[in-house]
Amino acid sequence: MEKICSVFLFCVLSACVISLSIPNERKGYSVDPFTFNSDDVSKWMVSRGLEPISESDRPSKAFVKAIQALKTYASEIVAESKKTKVSEDQMLVDQSAKDNRKKSQENDYPFWQFMPYDFGMVRPGAAPVTWTGMCFRNSSAISILNSDGSVDLELTLENPKDLLCSDFFLIGSVEQFSLQEVFTSGKKLIKFTPAADARAAQKWDLQTNGLRVFMFEHGVADVMASVTATAELFEPLASKGVLNLAAEKNIKFLKNYANIDMKKRTTTDVILDKSQIQSGDFFGIIRLDGLDPMLAWAMGSTTGHTTVALWGEDGELYICESTATTSYWDVNGIQKTPYTEWLKKAKEAGFNVVHIPLAPEYRAKMNLTAAWEFFNNTEGIDYGYDNMLWGWVDTLKDNYPCAPPNYDRCLSWNVIVVAFPQVEKIVKQFTSFYFQAWNFRLGTSNLPMAELLYEAHQQNIVPDSIPAMVEDDTWMYNTTRNGVAAVGPSMVCCVFVCHIWKASGVFSGIDNVVNCGELTNWDDYALTLFDKNYVRPQACVDADPDNQVCQLLGEYSVNLNNYNSKDPYQHMAEKCPSLAPNYNKPSNC
């Protein structure tokens, strides 16, 4: 499901924390520049009774393993910090600050508090980068290119707010990174030496772009406590259903981070008869498993998965979708499931499901034969891992989510550049999640991260604009079909739904000039494709009096924000922001 795209968004956001999971490299709270060794990670996981990540794992399974390892290690760090008495009291300037932080983060905002401040690139020979730290009021950094090709980062930290405070940094290039927690004033030098087998492009990045500097808002113990809390959101990924405690944590996350308030329902099942559903109708789903809520937070949607209904020539109603094999779903890729069977599986999985009917004028445009032709030509193709992030990212910075309460610590391009090469060393499957898509954008093939950055430089393309380039529906990806190597479109759930509509003629009024790869969940249901005169069945009204649409399944209410509000237009959704918590968009989005 498209929720799997949030798997890798999580890896990006937490890469700065995953880096701490190499305990044999850790020296107190400082880690000298290094790069991941997947064998060390596997050995550590085995030593903790965890199943190591395998290259043969499907991405969803690899992510579950990574979450379990992350939570285990974070818990160990928190326990260790208590033993060494590196307490939060020592890190705080006064009792008032302690009370305010505990109130806002432990009660309302415990999740994602490990997202760092991004101070940008510190280039050799450039002016110092300066900032006010959480501890040191006067902070700066310069980088120095040495004759042997190494680069020194010189941190100057002065005027601490308290004798016992510290600042905690992540510093990295496309090849290596370092973690440094600094307690004392003065200068600190961190040397980055290219590995013996470093490629020319990796050396170029270090020696030209220098080091990217990030600072965590809190010390190691607090960062790890937030990692633990965040990892707990994802516990339902390992189970068939969703337990109440996990659901409640995700409800809290959605309310406090994305302004999405899902109320508890008293009637959980409202099963529409097949005759009440037509081809082209939309189903929106959210599962309270950490992934869907995170995806909703990032996109500004109230769903994490989408499907579309199609009546077959055999007289059966099918729910068609792009999804992935998980602990709660047994079929992979583009697929169709008879409606009654799909409802049973959805209920067992803990889905919250809404249905909205296509408007009569758009249903009249639908060529059902063409819709089925598209489906039959793509059935069995793997879920759209290859481009799942880049249809969502349309801008240089206004799509990357930020952590509350101030929303000033965000995922950024620099985090991606440092994180991606490291994460893919542990989760080998990760390479595909940018590799082909970015090569398409630059007109190249088979270039890894560092070489892509160098190629963008050669083409005078600002590197952080690569993700925001438009995803072209004509691009065909190396993928699999029913487990066999194939070439075809890369489609996450909402992109697949859009393609069904596009293939069947729904967008004929705009001459089909739409790249479905650019649409998110929100874009699908915000389009004015749906019946504005729809009269909900009485059972739907009785179950959810205040909902605009009919909710079929779920313990919690799903209300589609901005439902049926945006007219289709050519090249829609190609340059649109999606920043929490207000998700303000220009009129053409």
Q: Main beta sheet, described?
A: 6 strands, antiparallel
Radius of gyration based on Cα positions: 24 Å
Strand-pairing-aware structural class = alpha+beta
Helix content: 25-40%
Spatial strand order of the main sheet? 13-12-11-10-14-19
What is the number of E strands? 19
Distance between the termini: 24 Å
Envelope shape: globular
Instruction: List the total number of helices.
Output: 18
Mean pLDDT: 89
Low-pLDDT parts are: 1-28, 85-105
Q: Hey, roughly how much beta strand do the residues contain?
A: 15-25%
Describe the protein.
The chain is of the alpha+beta class and 589 residues long. The chain contains 18 helices and 19 strands. Strands 13-12-11-10-14-19 form a six-stranded antiparallel sheet, sandwiched between helices. Helix 1 runs parallel beside helix 3, helix 1 (3-18) packs across helix 13 and helix 12 (368-378) crosses helix 16 (493-504). The radius of gyration is 24 Å and the shape is globular. The chain starts with a helix and ends in a 36-residue tail after the last strand.
Can you summarize this structure?
The chain has 589 residues and is of the alpha+beta class. It has helices spanning 3-18, 38-47, 59-83, 88-91, 95-108, 200-209, 220-233, 244-258, 291-299, 339-349, 360-365, 368-378, 413-426, 435-442, 449-458, 493-504, 521-526, 538-543; strands spanning 30-34, 117-122, 129-131, 136-145, 151-160, 167-172, 177-182, 186-192, 211-216, 282-287, 305-311, 317-323, 333-338, 351-356, 402-403, 409-410, 477-481, 484-488, 550-553.
